[in-house]
Amino acid sequence: MEAEVRPLAKMDFVAPSSLKEVLSLLEKHGNKAKLLAGGTDLIPKMKKRAIMADLVIDLNRISGLSQIEVRNDGLHIGGLTRLAEIKESPLVKEKAPALVQAISLMASPPIRNRATMAGNLGTASPAADTAPPLLVLDASVKLESARGERIIPLSEFFTGPQSTVRRPDEILTEVFLPVQDGSSAFLKLGRRKAFTLSVVSVAAFARIRRGKFEEVRLALGAVAPTPIRGRRVEENLKGKEVNEQNIAQAAEIIKGEIKPIADVRASEEYRREMSLIFTRRVLEQIGGRG
Amino acid sequence: MRVQFKLNGRDIAEEAEPYETLLDFLRERLNVTSVKKGCDEGDCGACTILLNGKPVRSCLLLAVQMREGDEITTVEGLAKQGEVNEIQEAFMEKYGLQCGFCTPGMILTAKALLDVNPQPTVEEIKDQFEGNLCRCTGYAQIIESVQRAAELRAGRR
Amino acid sequence: MELEYLEEVKKLLHSRNYKVVGTDVKRVDSLEKVTGMAKYAADYLMEKVLHVKAVRSPYAHALVKRIDKASALKVPGVEAVITAQDVPGENQIGYLVDDQPIITPKARYIGDIVALVVARDERTAWQGADQLRVEYEELPAIFDPREALNNDIKIHDHSRTATEVKILKGNVEEAFSHCDVIVERVYRTGSQDHAYLEPEAAVAIPTGVRSVNVIGTTQNPFRTRHTVARVLGWKDSDVTVMTPYIGGGFGGKDTYGPLICSLATLAAVKLGRPAMIVYSRYESFAYRFKRGPFEIRYKTGATKDGKVRAIQVDYIVDAGGYATWSVGFTKRAAYHATGVYEIGNVKIEGYAVYTNNLPNAAFNGFGNPQMLFAAESQMDIMAEALNMDPVEFRLKNALVPGSRTGTNQLLDHAVGIKELIQKVADQANWKGKRTQYESEQKGNKRRGIGVGCSWHGCGTTGFKRDWAGASVIVNPDGSVTYSTGIVEIGQGTITSHAMMVAEVLGVPFDRVRVDANNTGTMPDSGETHAQRGTIIGGTAAVDAALKIRKRMNKLAAELWECTEEEVAFENGENYNLKSPAQRIAFQDLAYEMYMRGIPPAEYGFIKARRGYPDPETGQGDPYAAYTFGCTIAEVEVDLETGQLNVLRLIPGVAAGKIIQPAVVKGQVYGCGMLGLGFATTERVLRKDGRMLNPSYTDYLIPTIKDMPEMADLVVVEDEYKYSGFGAKGVGEIAFIATPLAIANALYQALGIRFHEMPLDMEKIYFTLREKKSHGSRG
After folding, report:
1. Owning domain of residue B107
2. Which residues of chain C have pLDDT under 70?
């Protein structure tokens, strides 16, 4: 049920200028501190008291965490890179077109001008639109703290609605997409044509050789407690010929992999049905038939 | 806490509490009432300002986030010496407004678009404005106003 | 309004072409709006203004047993708690029925206001409201209007129904017995939120021991004034209501204006200091009164020659906890239930029933979107049964000059619907597209084209107060000050008034200044609603301007020794038609009036030319004139997802003379989107009286990308004799026709009739799935 927006609660505020300072503050305050990047999710949640913070740490004065780079191993996107910048980046358009498509279909320009990569993943909405493309591209995330750093595959990052493996003293500093041949696509079903939360979202990646799915990955959003990979669909389709029949058959399997709920946007049943439709559609698109 | 930034070219230095949104700060401390509170959670666009040239939701920013080099533009800063600018002129000429509540946000969004894309297509205009809600106009005359503004900027009358 | 104003004006202007009316001028308010200078209610920020927060019942039906004021007063900065006992005057703000306290001792809907907390700033007001301890005795609640009719639960002592309406014309039983085709269906329409960008707000400033100014979001400054005075126990003249710029109304600020202004004033007067209340978006969604849901059983009978002979309609409306405007919209629905057709036998019975839902009130269309959804769906079903094209069928039955309506009102002129339908059909390439979509469509998408016709009487429904005043003052320098009580809510009406005044006086438009936002100085023009702003409000303006212009003509005739009829005037110049060398500038003639003691100002006042239908038979003339609308919609359905995509809208209006073409285009396009939202994405989701989606995140209004292709507006100028320049109203007509056309287009696309609004994507999907499993065409 929707909570009411109210004036923000009293809190302390600090705007450090280096990552080191941030890590030290997180070490000290842990859960009592909240990281403010784009603010497009944090501020409304704080207004609704869904999130409480004694201390807000503004990340917007830190440099060095918003690079988009291609190195030998793959594409590196800094955690504080604005979604708008990612959307316009020629590097991302080339290496991860599904991510660009997802950003184009989510929120709106003013939101994207502030929202960040780390923010969209860190808030861990089951319907986070950047997650399915990143999942099918086998992305991993770097979490840094005063204690050191660790790399987590994105598929292991989400643990539930609004919940991740990120510890209170950690910050997500980078998203990494490994080098790979193939193409990716993203589709979304919403209740209106723009600026709306997904009822169902899907992403797919495939490498097709000699008319067969040499490699295929599928991910869905808004149909489970976290964004998920459709691994049984992938297993079924891998190695098979790219045709309508195989795709339709494989898509059926998705119903057993999802755990949709009913909410103000859609019923459980509808999400289940649409998962199948959109899985099929995105696979057709990636297979060159969409 | 001390907040410093430039507003429509003018230096601002004021005290603010961490819990003040930039929207409330602009309206209540600086009396910049063209920036409107339509929903206070980023869903409507009535609170749009330009921050360093880019449209953002002022209801999702804290006043204390602003720093000395930041430049904020609101519609009050567009008219020069009593003369409205070409976007404001276009919106009047092409009836891109009815109740006017969404209008400051629309005009600033148009400015941000035309500053980087002087001849936008209808699709590009729709992309830019998809997060600005209007309940009165049905959007058609807003699109026409943006197109007219582009014409006026290009010097074609 | 007995004068044939159109004729008067034409005669006075020597039938010349209009110089101002019918052109596109700069709106009187656009400069303020584009520069940010326009101040809306919440922009009146003052130092030390008190903030008011409403404390609301969390229960749909409950008695307030005890309020512990101390619990809130102990919060530093909370200055007062106002409860029902503290209302100094009458605790009553009922709109048409006196059933509604301003602060209630008995909650009748979730959100009903039980107390006000007044504090030094907004944050403190919230804290005070959080702390206030209220004890309730919960009562059983009822949410279904049909159940509420037959239940023991008593929401009000005086009645189960907020209103009832009956129409009886001819003999339906007899007529049905001769019909070759009879169709009876049940239709249901959901609620809809106005969702205007500006939430409700009001600021009240005491100006004396017994006087107060109120600046607030209201569409009816004079009704607001009266309601505020009533609540205070003061005279109307002790209260001054000032209308600021208003960020959208659509009827929402018609019902709610008096309420929000009264809340601010109670606080201000109690404490003797300025007080302000600004609703959050949540409050605006969750607690402001919306469109009423209807359940309509509609039976239509026709003979095989294609003539509709009889209709019988029974319907029930959810009024919610208080009557507010359901009294009006329930009646309007009945008066328009035939649709734009001449039908000889009509039997209608409608009830608005009290429930513990949020009260339902005024919203653009006011009962017509709901009722005409049923009527226009029926027309398409009948057309199919009779094997007739839907447009042909409508043309065969359409009202024409000389027709009588379902209430037996004679429409002797200004009935442009038939011409309108034809023109819209031509503009839409109806025949071509209809045939194209009739043939087998392949793939997963289906297209259809459909038509919807609407009509909407101009003037307040069922209300004896349908008057309007206007004031025109010609200043000694030749400028003109115009004042009206009609409110500018974005619809551009006061600009139309100024244009008509400029035309009648013969001055350039920019000479007229509109000064109209203070009940102390502006004339009472009634409410700004029901499409009456131009036709009734504007006619008062013309009434005043005509009187002054005739005096000026008399003066000029004296100066030139000619007759009054020989005096011509335009663009600020006056001259003798017979001898044009005799001329005088308007400002000089004006000054001469002053010098000679001839009154340079005039007060126009008219009462709408209509009657009040008989309570038993509904027969009578409920409205002065009717505006007509016709919209054709093209849609595409995704068979796999149920998504309904409106591709194109072709709107048309027959609204008499169009005073401001570009503004009317904006109204029609804007209304089209309101209608599109009503038909597709807008759902007020409720459970046990609580709204589940009170935010723009989940109450989805169309974005710029949801805008379909809009065809050029089709206009038929079927001038109405009794209004200034022959204008009728246009603010609601295009809304109403849009969902009707979309529903009919959907039928052509799928061959499946949906009897509910909105045409929800899940509903379409599951219906298609069911049909598929039963092997029908899908």
Report:
1. 86-156
2. 775-778
* B65/B96 same-domain check: no
CB proximity B17 to A under 8 Å: yes
Q: How far apart are CA A213 and CA A183, in angstroms?
A: 12
Chain C interface includes A42 (CB < 8 A): no
Chains near C with 3+ CB pairs less than 8 A apart are A, B
Residue of B130, B132, B134 to mutate when probing chain A, most A C-beta within 10 A: B130
Which of C29, C701, C705 has the CB atom closest to B126's CB atom? C705
CATH value at residue B126: 1.10.150.120
Residue B81: per-residue pLDDT:
79
Among B27, B48, B77, give the residue marking a domain's end: B77
Contacting B residues, span 68-107, partner chain A, CB-CB under 8 Å: none
| DSSP assignment of C438-459 | HS---TTEEEEEEEEEEEEEES
From A12, A58, A195, residue closest to B131, measured CB to CB: A195
Q: How far is A134 from chain B (nearest CA, A)?
A: 23
The encoded tokens of residue C346 equal 């009509």
CA–CA dist C104, C122 (Å, integer)? 23
Domains observed in chain A: 12-58 (3.30.43.10), 68-178 (3.30.465.10), 183-286 (3.30.390.50)
Task: Nearest by CB to B55, from A104, A110, A195: name it.
Answer: A110
Structure-token match 């126990």, residue found: C233
pLDDT digits (tens, 9 = 90+) for A109-131: 999 999 999 999 999 999 999 99
Query: In terms of CA atoms, which chain A residue is nearest residue C638?
Result: A277
Hey, are the CB atoms on C701 and B100 less than 8 Å from each other?
Answer: no
pTM of structure: 0.97
Q: Is A15 on the interface with B (CB under 8 A)?
A: yes
Res A290: pLDDT: 46
Residue after which a domain boundary falls, among B22, B56, B77: B77
C305 by Cβ neighbours in 10 Å (0-12 / 13-18 / 19+) ranks as exposed
Residue C595 corresponds to which amino acid?
Answer: M
DSSP B80: B
pLDDT along chain A (290 residues), means of 10: 88 97 96 96 97 97 96 95 98 96 97 98 96 98 97 98 96 95 96 96 97 97 97 97 96 96 96 98 86
In this structure, the answer to whether residues B30 and B54 fall within a common structural domain is: yes
In chain B, the percentage of residues whose pLDDT exceeds 90 is 95
Residue in B51, B60, B128 nearest the CB of A109: B128
Using the beta-carbon criterion (under 8 Å), do A265 and C698 form an inter-chain contact?
yes
Asked if B40's CB is within 8 angstroms of A15's CB, the reply is: no
Asked if the ipTM is above 0.85, the reply is yes
Contact C283 A4 (CB under 8 A): yes
The phi, psi pair for C312, rounded to 5°, reads -130, 125
| Residue in A2, A101, A113 to test binding to B, most B beta-carbons within 10 Å | A113
Query: What does the pLDDT profile of chain B (157 residues) look like in tens digits?
Result: 999 999 999 999 999 999 999 999 999 999 999 999 999 999 999 999 999 999 999 999 999 999 999 999 999 999 887 799 999 999 999 999 999 999 999 999 999 999 999 999 999 999 999 999 999 999 999 999 999 999 999 996 5
DSSP H or E stretch at residue C348: strand C345-354
Q: Sort out which chain B residues have CB atoms less than 8 A from A38's CB and list them.
A: 60
Task: Give the CB-side neighbour count of residue C637, counting CA atoms within 13 A.
Answer: 31
Q: Are B25 and B51 contained in the same domain?
A: yes
Count of domains observed in chain B: 2
Other beta carbons within 10 Å of A68: 19
A183 touches chain B (CB under 8 A): no
CATH number at residue B15: 3.10.20.30
Shared-domain flag, residues B61 and B33 = yes
The share of chain B scoring above pLDDT 70, in percent, equals 99
Q: Are residues B52 and B73 in the same domain?
A: yes
Minimal C-alpha gap between C105 and chain B (Å): 30
Same domain, B41 and B14: yes
Per-residue pLDDT tens over the stretch C77-100: 999 999 999 999 999 999 889 999
Per residue in A132-188, pLDDT tens? 999 999 999 999 999 999 999 999 999 999 999 999 999 999 999 998 999 999 999
CA angle B74, B77, B78 (to 5 degrees): 100
Looking at the fold, whether B28 and B64 belong to one and the same domain comes out as: yes
Which residues of A are less than 8 Å from B48 in CB distance? 110
Whether C148 and C321 have beta carbons less than 8 Å apart is answered as no
